[in-house]
Amino acid sequence: MADHTHALAVEGLTKRHGSGAGAVDALVGVDLSFARGTFTAIMGPSGSGKSTLLSCVAGLERPTSGRVLLEGTDVTSWDEARRTRMRRDRIGFVFQDFSLIPYLSAAENVALPARLAGRRVGAEAMRLALERVGLQSRAGHLPSALSGGQQQRVAIARALIGQPAVLLADEPTGALDSATARDVLALLRSAVDELRQTTVMVTHDPVAASYADMVVFLVDGRVSGRMTAPTADAVAAQLAHLDQLTGVAR
User: Fold this and answer.
1) Please, what is the Cα angle at 240 between 237 and 241, to 5 degrees?
2) Residue 20 confidence (pLDDT)
3) In the β-sheet with 199-202, what is the strand arrangement from edge to edge?
4) From residue 81, how far is each of 60, 73, 86, 88, 211 by CA, in Å?
5) 192-230 CB burial, b ≥16 within 10 A, e <16
6) Which residues, 6 or more positions from 16, have their beta carbon under 8 angstroms from its beta carbon?
7) Could you tell me the pTM of the whole model?
8) Is 41 within 8 Å of 209 (Cβ atoms)?
9) What is the three-class DSSP state of 25?
C-alpha cells in the first residue's frame, strides 16, 4: 500500500527502450519515495536514467513496468488526457532553458498554466508569486528584457503558483553562472522550507545537490546509493566513485 504521507513514490519502476538484443534498460526496478516538504537531488553519470525517471514521473513516458504514485494515487495507467491534466494541475516544472513564452510578459508567463486550465490568477496571487522570487518590479517585462537568472526565477514562480504536489527541476542551474545559480537554488530551498513544497531536482552539480535534504545516486538505471544532509565535497567524492563503478560495469 502506498504511504499517503508521500507526495510522490515509484515502485519497481523499469523502462526499456527497444527490444531483443538491442534493448536498453534506462531504469531497472527503481523504488523511491519522496515525503511531503522535502528536497531531493537525483544524480548520476550520463546515461544513468535521471531524465528518464523524471519523464516517467511526469507522465511523459510510460514505464515498461512498475508504478508511479502521486499523493497516493496510481497514475501509471492514466490515458494521455488525464496525464496532461496531471502535469498542468499537480506538477510544477523548472527546466534548464527556462521554457518561457517569448511574447508573454513575466506576469503572463507565470499565469499561463492557470489560464490553460481555465482558472483566473488574481492580482494579489500574482503579486505574491513575483514578490517571492524578487521580480515584482519586472512583471511587465518580456523574457528578452530579463537576465538568465531572472528568467529562471519567473519559471520558478510559474511552477509554484498552482501549489503543485511536486516540483520537478531538470538541471535548473545548468545555464547560469555560479552566483546566479546560488540565488536560484536558495529560492528552491526556501519553497521547501516555507511552503512545504516537495521538490525533485536532477543535477550534475555537487554544489546544487548540497541544497537538498537527500541525494539519490543512479548508476545504469539502478539506485546505487543515498546521502542525507549532503555537502558539495561529499557529493563530488561519491560521484567520482560512481563513475568508476559505471566504467567497471561497462
Assistant:
1) 90
2) 81
3) 91-95, 166-170, 199-202, 39-43, 214-219, 222-228
4) 12, 16, 9, 11, 35
5) beeeebbbbbbbebbbbbbbbbbbbbbbbbbbbeebeeb
6) 23, 24, 25, 26, 64
7) 0.91
8) yes
9) strand
For residues 142-154, one letter each, b for 16 or more C-beta atoms within 10 angstroms of the residue's C-beta and e for the rest, the string is bbeebebbbbbbb
Residue 73 contacts residue 4 (beta carbons within 8 Å)? no
Residues of the chain with pLDDT under 50: 1-2, 247-250
Task: Tell which residue, 32, 41, 44, 42, has the closest CA to residue 6.
Answer: 32
Q: Dump pLDDT digits (tens) for 179-236.
A: 999 999 999 999 999 999 999 999 999 999 999 999 999 999 999 999 999 999 999 9
- Taking the C-alpha atoms of residue 88 and residue 119, their distance in angstroms, rounded to an integer, is 11
* Cell numbers at 133, concatenated: 522570487
3-state SS, residue 229: coil
For cell 566504467, what's the residue?
247
